[in-house]
Amino acid sequence: MFVCEKKIPSSASLQAFDAAARHGNFVRAANELSLTEGAISRQIARLEDLLNCKLFDRIGSRVKLNPVGVRYAHHVRETLDRLERDTQYIMSLPEGSKSLDIAVLPTFSSRWLIPRLNGFKDLYPTITLNIAAKTTPFILPGSGFDAVIHFEHPAWTGMRRQFLFQENLLPVCNPKLLTNDDVNRQLNELPRIHRRQNPNAWHQYAQENGIRLDNPDQGVRYYLHEMAIAAAIGGQGVALVPQGYVEHELSSGKLVSPWPVSSCLSKKFCLIKPTETGINEAALENFERWLLTETRTLNSLAT
């Protein structure tokens, strides 16, 4: 069977190249790494031989990255930085602990998940949760994530999926914007705040609830629900946002919603897991069990 040889430079060559690229000088790179200038030069030569191209333009005793070198230096710097972060993280883990890397939609993470994580920590003190924001679906196997909290999407076909809750949208605004009892007329008159990824939401909401909106496309557009919520709190207009993300603001009076919640503008959120179980499966099962308990409140809002 033919096996393709991997083209992976040695760590010594990459460190020498990174130092030389940052300093633009082999002597200073050698001083940083406690090597000789000759050792730096030999490591760079080996790297260039592997790549079959030059990375530096040599001008007398000076060196300068050529365009290929500039591009490669950027990727090498990112790789070394990531390797250092991962190494420090593993070194910091207490003995016997487990860690989970979970990808989550940004607003769900900041407004709902993270504020509740103390409860998870109390139940499972030996499990460390690392949360990363992901706005779009991606290929889960090989991504470095143990699971994803996201809405249903064809990208997750073949993955293990556990339904968590139904996300329903609700119009909200600063109470100062409501000046009379005819709230439907005011919804037509007030500035509307849109989420860029769902430009037809207001049109669909008006049709569903029989509310007249003369220009449903009018208004500013924001990328995240978090941004739209902040704009609504600031009095910029009416935002159509997930009901479960603004429960605190509604109960405290920072936001009000005299309009009905939408039943057609909804998404099913799931915990998506790889098909094959991994070394963190037991920890992931504990996280899933905790999530199912916590999301009961979100499901009660949708009924």
What portion of residues belong to β-strands? 15-25%
Quaternary organization: single chain
Helix residue percentage: 40-55%
Q: Please give the domain count.
A: 2
Instruction: Please identify the structural class as seen in this structure.
Output: alpha/beta
By CATH, the topology of the largest domain is D-Maltodextrin-Binding Protein, domain 2
Q: How many β-strand stretches?
A: 10
- Straight-line distance between termini: 58 Å
- How many strands, which pairing sense, and closed or not: the largest β-sheet? 8 strands, mixed
CATH class of the largest domain: Alpha Beta
- Would you identify the regions where 5 or more consecutive residues have pLDDT less than 50? none
Could you say what the CATH architecture of the largest domain is?
A: 3-Layer(aba) Sandwich
Strand order of the largest sheet: 4-3-5-10-6-9-7-8
- SSE succession: HHHEEHEHHEEEHEHEHEHEHH
Average of the residue pLDDT scores: 89
The gross shape turns out to be elongated
Number of helices: 12
Give Rg in angstroms. 26 Å
Concise account of the structure shown:
With 303 residues, the chain is of the alpha/beta class. It has helices at 11-23, 26-33, 37-51, 67-92, 106-113, 117-123, 183-189, 201-209, 225-233, 247-252, 281-294, 296-302; strands at residues 56-59, 62-65, 98-104, 127-133, 147-151, 160-172, 192-195, 220-222, 238-242, 266-273.
Provide tags for this entry:
Arc Repressor Mutant, subunit A; alpha/beta; 8-stranded mixed sheet; 303 residues; elongated; 2 domains; D-Maltodextrin-Binding Protein, domain 2; two-stranded antiparallel sheet; 12 helices
